[in-house]
Design goal:
Elements: E1 10-11, E2 14-15, E3 17-24, E4 31-38, H1 43-48
Antiparallel strand pairs: 1-2, 3-4
Length: 50
Amino acid sequence: MAKKTVATLQSSSKRLTKAIKMVKSPKSGAYTFQEAVMPPEAVNEWLSKK
């Protein structure tokens, strides 16, 4: 039976967003995932960085 996980990222009056991006390692060529929790306004800037 599958488990379902529900996470609420709201704490008090702050609204937060969890962003996940896939990054290719220059050394091995494998992909890794980077996760970060931030305000919604900062997501596009964070995703555009290398």
